[in-house]
Design brief:
Elements (H helix, E strand, L loop, with lengths): L5 E4 L2 E4 L16 H9 L10 E3 L2 E6 L5 E7 L3 E7 L7 E7 L24 E8 L5 E4 L21 E3 L13 E2 L83 E3 L9 E3 L17 H4 L44 E8 L12 E2 L2 E4 L4 E4 L7 E2 L29
Antiparallel strand pairs: 1-2, 3-6, 4-5, 5-14, 6-9, 7-8, 7-14, 9-10, 10-11, 12-13, 15-18, 16-17
């Protein structure tokens, strides 16, 4: 009895439940012959997903009734499926984001802003084949912002890799997302560093320097977009993102970083996360830097008069902002790119939600110790008790540190 229909017992109608469903929200009543038949056929069959280990685990249900388990890697590790599901296909969804590039700096005693760092490349692999061998996970580090005491662009972000060819062969183009390109830096004696570096997404240029290229752009296998160029101005251009190119400078402020992409693999469709946004270009003199891509997921460009570029949002693979230019003798560094991330998810049965983790609440980045569930908030969010019963919690809250001074000044307080 695998279909659905109406059954009558004692004058009460109800919808029958398919033998392969385990969704407790679907009720049903069955006649004695129905129950006898189901017993003879082996009873009710519960849906179960793959059994796997690795990363921080988050279970969730979607509004359409599907249930998923996500493995979230923000540090190197190993993902391994020990047994495949008997009721769901042998596939998984994979998101791979490289580390963001560092922003370019503003040269000593120069009013020219640095280019924004490019975002790490992004690969989204739905319905990828699910092997049972161990898969090595490498997470790309975010690139450092340029400090122009020696001429250099922002540092390129590191590559994020999900296995090697023999471990994991997934379409369309492989399993490595490349780090974002560093932003260009204005330097009177080294004009070559004014060009943004190429990478997963390209870094923004500065002072006649073009933006760097995005990997495989343009085309169906591209991982990101190019960084913006500057034309003959003193402002930095925006770094490219996985969703759009970095903006050229408008001539009155730094160029905006390119937008990232939204993805639901980690926390479900009600809590999407934006990854791989470009950093904004640095401003010149007293003028503003460019906005970080996707409303500040990428680092904001530093305002002129000695403001450093902002850092990309943690564990999103976003680029750092370019440093702000100033005529006074300051070295205004670019912002740091954010580390990359890898997320793997697959379907599970509704009865398995939080069965292995004991998770009783939602909100923030969730990790598990042997005895506790830990919710980490690095931005605004909501902690919600989903257990239906009171919870006893421990928490720690830390305020933001104070900014340091400029040019031989003291450091900021914690």
């Amino acid at each position: 009895m695998s279909g659905t229909g109406s059954r009558l017992i004692g004058g009460i109608y109800g919808d029958t439940q398919p033998s392969t469903a385990d969704d407790g929200s679907i009720s049903g009543v069955y006649t004695m012959p129905d129950q006898y038949y189901m017993t003879q056929e082996g009873g009710w069959e519960l849906q179960t997903g793959h059994t796997a280990t690795g990363g921080a685990i988050n279970d969730y249900s979607t509004p359409t009734g599907d249930s998923y388990r996500a493995h979230i890697f923000t540090a190197p590790g190993t993902f391994q499926i020990s047994s495949l599901s008997a009721t769901f296909p042998a596939v998984m969804d994979v998101l791979i984001v490289g580390g963001g590039g560092g922003g370019g700096g503003a040269a000593y005693n120069s009013a020219h802003g640095g280019g924004g760092g490019g975002a790490g490349g992004a690969l989204v692999l739905p319905d990828a084949p699910a092997p049972t061998n161990a898969i090595t996970v490498t997470i790309g580090k975010g690139g450092a912002g340029a400090n122009v005491s020696s001429p250099a662009t922002g540092t390129e972000g590191g590559d994020s890799t999900f296995g090697t060819g023999p471990q994991f062969n997934a379409p369309p183009s492989g399993q490595t997302s490349y780090g974002g390109g560093g932003g260009g830096t204005r330097h009177p004696t080294s004009p070559a560093v004014q060009t943004g570096e190429s990478g997963g997404s390209g870094g923004g240029g500065t002072t006649d320097g073009p933006g760097g290229a995005g990997y495989n752009y343009p085309g169906p296998a591209q991982q990101g977009y190019p960084g913006g160029g500057t034309s003959p101005t003193s402002y930095g251009a925006g770094g490219g993102g996985a969703g759009s190119a970095g903006s050229n400078t408008p001539g009155s402020a730094g160029g905006a970083g390119g937008d990232g992409i939204g993805n639901v693999y980690a926390y479900g469709p009600t809590n999407p996360v934006i990854y791989a946004a470009g950093g904004g270009g640095g401003g010149a003199s007293a003028n503003a830097g460019g906005a970080g891509g996707s409303s500040g997921v990428g680092g904001i460009g530093g305002q002129g008069q000695a403001l450093a570029g902002g850092d990309g949002k943690r564990s999103t693979g976003s680029g750092g902002g370019g440093g702000g230019g100033d005529d006074n003798p300051y070295d205004n560094r670019g912002g740091f790119g954010a580390d990359g991330i890898i997320v793997v998810r697959y379907k599970i049965g509704a009865s398995e939600i939080n069965a292995t983790t004991g998770q009783k609440a939602s909100g923030g980045d969730i990790v598990f110790s042997p005895t506790e569930t830990i919710h980490v908030f690095n931005s605004n969010g909501t902690f919600t008790n989903t257990s239906g019963s009171p919870l006893t919690v421990s928490y720690i809250a830390v305020g933001g540190g104070g900014g340091g001074g400029v040019w031989a000044s003291g450091g900021g307080g914690a």
